[in-house]
Design goal:
- The protein has 173 residues and is an alpha/beta fold.
- The protein is globular, with a radius of gyration of 16 Å.
- The strands form 3 sheets. The chain has a 5-stranded parallel β-sheet, sandwiched between helices. Strands 1-2 form a two-stranded antiparallel ribbon. A two-stranded antiparallel ribbon has the order 5-6.
- α2 crosses α3.
- The chain has a single domain, classed as Rossmann fold (3-Layer(aba) Sandwich), CATH 3.40.50.
- It starts with 8 loop residues before the first strand and ends with a strand.
- The structure holds adenosine monophosphate (AMP).
- The site of adenosine monophosphate has 17 residues, from β2, β7 and α4.
Length: 173
């Protein structure tokens, strides 16, 4: 999987100065590479009775839906406020400047379900921490088996914010 680093593009100063953005679009446009990523996740969870794969807007949806299809599981979307049409639960979280929020449909998960949460990049962990809170605070008896990322930026210590939940990252920087 380390070879994936050769097709993930660094874009300096995007979306603002000082950030090196990990652009995964070259990986997504390489059919064999994308398939390899989804196969590795599928193999990891195939025997775990996953009911739902939870994807985080927006790039998380790409991996979540492919993985869910491969597992025969359902997909749940975590979206920015105002995007989901039905009744929602919301979690507000702080960013470097200001706040953001994440929403989930109130009927997205049921008691007893096993879920895997998927996103493309674990950076500071703010987004995933809010996502996990959204699930654990609103849905009793839902088991988060693991949180899976394509990329983890180790130097930002995002996993410190996700204590207590198993984390799997395919590629580390
Ligand atoms: P965070 O809440 O800081 O862990 O990151 C939130 C989201 O921003 C992640 O889901 C990523 O999609 C995106 N992101 C943050 N930093 C980067 C980066 N350096 N390169 C690509 N995406 C990033």
């Amino acid at each position: 999987m380390e070879s994936m680093k050769q097709i993930i593009r660094d874009v300096p100063d995007f979306p603002k100065e000082g950030i090196i953005f990990k652009d995964i679009t070259p990986l997504l446009s390489d059919g064999a590479a994308f398939q390899k990523v989804i196969h590795s996740l599928k193999n990891r969870y195939a025997e775990k009775q996953v009911d739902m794969v939870v994807g985080v807007e927006a790039r998380g949806f790409i991996f979540a839906s492919a993985l869910a299809y491969a597992l025969g599981a359902g997909v749940v979307m975590i979206r920015k406020p105002g995007k989901l049409p039905y009744k929602t639960f919301q979690k507000t979280y702080s960013l470097e400047y200001g706040t953001d929020a994440a929403e989930i449909h109130q009927d997205a998960l049921r008691s007893g379900q096993n879920v895997v949460v998927v996103d493309d990049v674990l950076a500071t962990g703010g987004t995933l921490s809010a996502t996990l809170d959204l699930i654990t605070e609103n849905f009793a008896n839902v088991k988060i088996l693991e949180v899976a990322f394509l990329i983890e930026l180790d130097f930002l210590n995002g996993r410190e914010k996700l204590k207590g939940v198993p984390i799997h990252s395919i590629i580390h920087y």
